[in-house]
Amino acid sequence: MSDYIKLNKANWDERAPLHAASTEYGTQTFIDDAYHLSDVVRFDVPLLGDISGFRGVHLQCHIGTDTLSLARLGAQMSGLDFSPAAIVQARALAERSGALIEYVESEVYHATSVLPPASFDLVYTGIGALCWLPSIDTWARTVSDLLKPGGRLFIREGHPMLWSINEGREDALSVEFPYFEREEPLVWDDECTYVETDVRLKASVTHAWNHGLGEIITALLTHGLDITGLVEHQSIPWNALPGQMVCDDHGEYRLKEAPWRLPLSYTLQAVKRRG
């Protein structure tokens, strides 16, 4: 196991039970309301469209709230995550919600060792996933290997321009971190997670990478996918730039001033070529 996987896995293993217990993830609402969808998937629905009957896999699914939401839209879902603690929480949520979802523990790059290749109609990846992967090319190859010919990739992710902004500055949008993929990771040491909790993380060090939008698109094209849609958004579902954002009624955060200055997230869709 490489150092980045060991460090990041330990961090997410600590986060998983904290997130499952948090009001932000709202797991009890999923259990109480069989029609409830996560804010993330609800945002995706207009572009995602009808996925009834699809066989789908959610890569880097974490504790499964978005995976469960996709299942409630009619897809036969599998979820994959490298954190065993997250998989425990995801399985518990599915069981308590009465959903049949297959969850597997694996690193993304090894997905086809635990899931059948070329068997999925939909590969879904949500917010805050790609930054934990060092190679976008290897990720794109994995996506292609999982999809059937004609199968779809759907990803909504934080915009690489946002990831390059220093979130510690409340007085300006300051570009201080790499936009493009680099071999060297960004190394963070943070005892806090993004939900409200008094618990401090012991495994506080993580490694992350940015990937430029052109790099992502080129990697997908290289591995046999055609881009069918790309939309950049002026919102993102967490307070990514504290002191500079406001939250709307749908749980989306936008810049308080001149929101047209910066794309905060994007939705990218692609289809695997036939033949």
Automatic annotation (TrEMBL):
Keywords: Methyltransferase, Transferase. The keyword Transferase applies. It comes from the Bacteria. SUPFAM superfamilies: S-adenosyl-L-methionine-dependent methyltransferases. GO terms for biological process: methylation. It holds the Pfam family Methyltransf_12. InterPro entries: Methyltransf_12 (IPR013217), SAM-dependent_MTases_sf (IPR029063). Residues 58-153 form the Methyltransferase type domain. This is Methyltransferase. It comes from Pseudomonas fluorescens.
